[in-house]
Amino acid sequence: DEDRLHAVHSALLRVFARLADYVEVQFVHDELRADDATAYLFHLARHYDDMADWTFFLHADAPQHIHPFRLLENVFAAVSSGTLSHDDIPFLYLTHNYLDLAMSRHTWDDYASPSLWRHLFGGSFAPPREAVAGYCCVQFVVPRSRALLRPRTWYVRALTWFANADSYWSLLPAGRVVTWHDLTCRTPAQLWMPWWHVVFGEELRCPERHLDP
């Protein structure tokens, strides 16, 4: 209800006001949980025309997924000082858990993943599981030039789909059935996790940071 949303909004402002000069809290309404998928897409669609030079996409529990946390601090410092180049770092995952889908089936489903890929990127083709690699937990930094590679309409369409219950139903062959496990795990958003780099023009297999020249 409105009172609860106001209380949450006030609490978030108190926390983040210590970390930034300006804080704006936006709520995204999902029919079923989509978490970072709709949160990130909402920002990309809403701020398409006034995108920052660099945008950090982070979870509230970022320290649990970014090790060492100094990596985030150093990237923040490089952005603030103007020493980070779009050419040198066109996209950067900040988390530490690398997902090579050739080695692991985590975040891949033989029915749902190809269906999700075709829905997001169009066409009748979806890459094989072995062709995709990225990082878990969807926390990254991207420059404006890469965020604008896709039109605003792409982000709006993806946002509308993830915010709708159809994003669950279309990935499950049983019809309009959503299990407790799928809802708790936010299945559509989870399956998309290791593909975010593709949205911003990176190759299917994102190399591990220490192996990326």
Give helix and strand order, one letter per element, not per position: HHEHHEEHEEHHHHHH
Q: Taking strands numbered 1, 2, ... along the chain, how are they ordered across the largest sheet?
A: 1-5-2
Spans of at least 5 consecutive residues with low confidence: none
- Helix content estimate: 40-55%
Number of extended strands: 5
Give the terminus-to-terminus CA distance: 50 Å
Q: What's the structural domain tally?
A: 1
Structural class: mainly alpha
* Residues in β-strands, percent: 5-15%
Mean of all residue-level pLDDT scores:
85
Could you describe the largest sheet, including whether it forms a barrel?
3 strands, antiparallel
Gyration radius, rounded: 17 Å
Instruction: Characterize the overall form.
Output: globular
> How many DSSP helices?
11
Protein name: Protein xylosyltransferase
Pfam families: DUF3431 (PF11913)
InterPro entries: DUF3431 (IPR021838)
Nutshell version of this structure?
It comes from Noctiluca scintillans (Sea sparkle). The protein has 213 residues and is mainly alpha-helical.
What does this entry look like structurally?
- By secondary structure, the chain is mainly α.
- The chain has one domain.
- 41% of the residues lie in helices and 8% in strands.
- It is built from eleven helices and five strands.
- The strands form two sheets. A three-stranded antiparallel beta sheet has the order 1-5-2.
- The longest helix is centred in the N-terminal third of the chain and has 15 residues, at 2-16.
- The radius of gyration is 17 Å and the shape is globular.
- The model has no long low-confidence stretch (mean pLDDT 85).
